[in-house]
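pinned: reference chain
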Amino acid sequence: MTGRRRPTSPRPFPGVISAAAAGALLLSGCGALPGATGGSREPVTVMTWAPDRSEDINAVKMAGVPAMAQTYARWVNDTGGIDGRELRVIVCDEGDTTIGAERCAREAVDRKVAAVVGSYSSHGQSFMPALEAGGVPYIGGYGASTEEFSSYLSYPVNGGQSALLAGHGRQLGGSCTRVSLVRPDSIGGDGMPPLLNNGLMAADRPASTDILAPLDATSYDEQAAQALERSGGGCVTAVLGARTETFFDSFRRLEPEGQQVRISSVLGSVSQPLINRTGGRNSPFEGAYVTGWYPDAKNARWQQMRDVIGKYAFGDNRIDPDDTAVQTTWIAYTALRAAVRAIDDENVTSGRIVAALNGGVEVDTGGLTPTLRWRFRDLVGTSSYPRIVNTKVTFQVVREGRLTAQKKGFVDVADALTDAPRS
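pinned: its structure tokens
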């Protein structure tokens, strides 16, 4: 196991802007805000970053994340701001690189933003030290890096891929007698089987069969054949990020005619946009079990977000309301709004945002998550992910080309998020 890179949490697979360009993208206005009662108060300036443009064809691209942040600001400012405060959003393209992530973080500190909100980056080892040095909180990141669940200045709104894997084991345990797990051959991938197995064993199922796969392959015939052979007619799950689609292409080609093996994955490796792109109801994911963080995209609880996108981002094809990254950005800005409202008449600074969140501000997301709060007593507190407060997941299944709820409501996987595998 030598020669491997330092782990970043496996991507739960699902602005480069100069300081001057970022300033041009800063959403601002003049005079009193529409809908504000009385004079406007001091504005709140935050940053959102994500990989947007890159010459690397393998780089992750999440243009919908900064676009959703800007849309949220337009909506808030058009309706009186946050208690009369204008919301200003600077976006930064981190380019899916360590250098880009650190550059965005340093820019956030230099511009004295109140927080970095609803962002996406897998390079937490690069951006988090810069934010910690500047005292800038990181609110509602997508969960693509381990540092988001360990840094004292991170306030995650979901349980990251760890919760998804633990929950997925629980989901598969309900109907799969045996499970083959296809996962990356990496240090990050090495942490996947214990979490999945915790969930399986909670349902009195045996541990999964562990099948390692390279993340740079163009075909997974060998791994697909192993998964078929070892599944024993049970279930095959793949968590390979953007390569999950490639694996299931190989798998469906090798699957014997008439033999139906249940396939599965977690959100980030499988998403509604991916299902749409690969044929909808005719996609290879039809019938797949999928574990997510939030209610399925057609749930009525997302209607306010959809209405805001329809009015303030009409025609902006960067924003897909079915995209989990876009949804996470919406929830993150909901958390920011609650924290700002708790500050009352004082100017909003990064230190006051941190004090408000640590002091027990409750965030009501309208049922998209449980009520969020980051007091010490609310933290899961395990050594691997001490900052997790939301241990709930959802069970979904692909029916007629749509991710739909397999089980109503949330499932709590706190007991499976342990530091050691169950025996």
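why pinned: The first strand starts at residue 41 and ends at 50. The domain at 19-159+300-390 is CATH 3.40.50.2300 (Rossmann fold).
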